[in-house]
UniProtKB/TrEMBL annotation, chain A:
One of its GO terms (molecular function) is oxidoreductase activity. NCBIfam families: gltA. It holds the Pfam family Fer4_20. This is Sulfide dehydrogenase (Flavoprotein) subunit SudA. Coiled coil: none annotated. Gene3D superfamilies: Alpha-helical ferredoxin, FAD/NAD(P)-binding domain. Residues 17-127 form the Dihydroprymidine dehydrogenase domain. It comes from Anaerocolumna aminovalerica. Residues 139-447 form the FAD/NAD(P)-binding domain. The lineage of its organism: Bacteria, Bacillati, Bacillota, Clostridia, Lachnospirales.
Automatic annotation (TrEMBL), chain B:
Residues 1-95 form the FAD-binding FR-type domain. Keywords: 2Fe-2S, FAD, Flavoprotein, Iron, Iron-sulfur, Metal-binding. Residues 273-295 are annotated as: Disordered. This is Ferredoxin--NADP+ reductase. Its cofactor is [2Fe-2S] cluster; FAD. Residues 273-286 have a biased composition (Basic and acidic residues). It comes from Anaerocolumna aminovalerica.
Amino acid sequence: MDVLKKVPVREQDPKVRATNFDEVCLGYNIEEAKEEASRCLKCKNPKCVDGCPVSIDIPGFIKEVEAGNIEEAAKVIGQYSALPAVCGRVCPQETQCEQRCIRGIKGEAVSIGKLERFVADWSRENNIKPEPPKETNGKKVAVIGSGPAGLTCAGDLAKLGYEVTIFEALHEPGGVLVYGIPEFRLPKETVVKTEIDNVKALGVKIETNVVIGKSTTIDELMEEEGFQAVFIGSGAGLPKFMGIPGENANGVFSANEYLTRNNLMKAFDENYDTPIAKGKKVAVVGGGNVAMDAARTALRLGAQVYIIYRRSESELPARVEEVHHAKEEGVIFKLLTNPKEILVDEKGWVKGMKCVEMELGEPDASGRRKPVEKPDSEFEIELDTVIMSLGTSPNPLISSTTTGLETDKRRCIVADEKNGQTSKEGVFAGGDAVTGAATVILAMGAGKAAAKGIHEYLSNK
Amino acid sequence: MYKIVKKETLAPNIYLMDIEAPRVAKSCYPGQFVIVKMDEKGERIPLTICDYNRDLGTVTIVFQTLGTSTKRMAEYEVGDSYRDFSGPLGCKSELVDESDEELRKKHILFVAGGVGTAPVYPQVKMMKERGIDVDCVIGARNKDLIILEDEMKKVAKNVYVATDDGSYGMKGNVNDCIKDLVQNQGKQYDLVIAIGPVIMMKFVCILTKELGIKTIVSMNPIMVDGTGMCGACRLTVGNEVKFACVDGPEFDGHLVDFDESMKRQQMYKTEEGRAALKEKEGDTHKNGGCGCSDK
Ligand SMILES: Cc1cc2nc3c(=O)[nH]c(=O)nc-3n(C[C@H](O)[C@H](O)[C@H](O)COP(=O)(O)OP(=O)(O)OC[C@H]3O[C@@H](n4cnc5c(N)ncnc54)[C@H](O)[C@@H]3O)c2cc1C
Ligand SMILES: Cc1cc2nc3c(=O)[nH]c(=O)nc-3n(C[C@H](O)[C@H](O)[C@H](O)COP(=O)(O)OP(=O)(O)OC[C@H]3O[C@@H](n4cnc5c(N)ncnc54)[C@H](O)[C@@H]3O)c2cc1C
Ligand code: SF4
Ligand code: SF4
Ligand code: FES
């Protein structure tokens, strides 16, 4: 074994996986996990922990893995994270815990994410469940949204003895974990459902099909239904479009629509009723994780797929691993390219896209070099489907129906980072609804902080 | 689970159901809609709220069977339950928040086409409850397809019926009827609220624009979530892109791009759905279920 290298993780062959929706990464088995765990130096001053937004005791759990005490390892992680099987899969580890890993100074960092995933999967397979609290304290808290922020906040509060009800607008709990991130990266039935069941096992009630702001309001929950505090974890689901000609043509989708049809509504499975326009030649506009997910989904539905991104490869906001997987599977990257117009046939369907080549100019406010159009470089590509993946912002449904809730100019709810407190008494918020589209682990961290904030608030009341 | 407590067949292929959904019943208003998902494998089907009883906690829906989903919905009987029933979604009708005094000053005409009579009903009923007289035109292809006429007569001051084949009421489509009212019977209206097939709403709007009467329509584009998350329901209103599920479904009909909306609605029309439409309405969509005529 070469201690400088990660123990490789088994993956489905790219050619095979490009035609199915099964998980790409197969994870470690116990021998591989123990071997990888032995690479960890169990540092006295573990830098990796500083890189983790929820400060998991990484050497602590890795030590248990090395010794083969997986149940113990699960308990260590459980003190910090409610969704380890999810984070082990989708956290951008390479810019968080693993980036700081001391092992990584010379050679490759320890595969912290893959080890975390192993521990969580092992616990699930061996039916380890969290213990529900012994008694409740009789205080009711409402949580809006069942994404990572809401689930974490609800789980932590339940452990402290609160009676928690989650209100979810859609018919399934999980937020982006069920409607956005595809099956081949995050299996729904095994991984996501189990983590949600674990939260339910703590005594948390989940009421689906309740749209806060429509079915009822925060004011009503507090005044009429006896909730003493509310946590808003409603995410940032509102899709953006470019505003170019042809964007309302048939065959132009937001990434959210395309992914929701396929993930939440399971359109890829013909036993389900929801249709999806599969497309033969698909362009995905954008370069983030969401764009990669949409592209790889379209590929699996049988299309030839382009990623259209206006900057260069090094600016792609998606995780390196996702870009690598997309390329392996055959997604074609058209970088430094920007759409100008979607071309539409007489029946109103997409027939192509007019694009322009870009080059990188001076750095902009974000420090990234700003793309500018190359003169006379317009060209057309033939397409039947276009998926817009340009980012999302928080939905105004809640902020516009709650009195005294302050938002900023990006429509994000204003909340204290330390405890989630908003401008309205008894109302806390966190996750994408506060930060704008971010990551699962940051949303979880915010859910945790708010649970603590709510506990303090209700204890002093 | 949301229990079906009443089921009626209003016309061939048009069904009315009362569903137990206390949260929706408590907070809904005319103009809003719900999303029904029958079972694990079903799609999310948007349907307008046609009535509600806050005391009993029930909501009434009326739907027409077209393709797979609506046909499957019709197989459910009293005592069965739908898995999901989410709402109320969308904005309430503008009339809800207008004062009685303002409304009394207006002469309002409701225009209902085919199954669109069902979503018109709660609005007319609300006007009656607030003591405001309104007129209503109901159009359909033939007598059998006229629904909720008796109910409507109880709440509207005047109900005018038009059928394409003349089997009941006036022979002609809803536009012929509106023209007759305004041009021959000396009626004056300041506001028209038209709900029915998109093609009917389009032609009503062309006419009311000529007549100079402000017109509200209720759009029914393809939807997925109904909460503003997917953008499937987008349409162009006065050169702006709107999401019907959160900005609508009611819009100023003189600003809506109906042609784009009709094209978008075709996106997933199944063969069955298409066959049923063709069987009913013919290739050219002449004499649409509403009683309107094509270009
Ligand atoms: C396609 C895709 C891929 C991604 N990939 C990654 C990745 O690889 N790694 C990573 O770390 N992050 C990834 N992200 C980002 C990550 O998923 C989000 O940052 C995270 O899910 C945010 O969590 P949240 O709990 O704040 O909100 P969400 O997960 O968005 O959950 C919000 C929930 O609130 C519900 N809701 C909204 N409004 C209401 C209302 N009015 N009433 C009731 N309920 C409401 C919504 O239906 C939803 O279920 C990805 C996102 C997408 C879309
Ligand atoms: C806000 C709103 C309110 C509505 N209210 C009513 C109502 O009160 N009564 C009623 O009978 N119908 C109503 N509709 C239309 C109803 O949702 C469709 O008739 C139904 O979805 C058709 O499904 P299908 O599978 O039976 O038909 P098919 O024709 O086989 O449909 C195939 C696909 O196209 C989509 N689709 C087709 N037509 C429509 C449409 N008009 N609107 C949205 N999606 C469509 C569906 O996603 C479906 O999967 C409403 C639609 C909206 C958006
Ligand atoms: S939660 Fe994410 S950042 Fe923290 S240790 Fe796990 S993979 Fe790393
Ligand atoms: S920094 Fe790396 S080597 Fe050190 S404890 Fe963390 S994972 Fe182990
Ligand atoms: S139905 Fe998804 S945004 Fe309107």
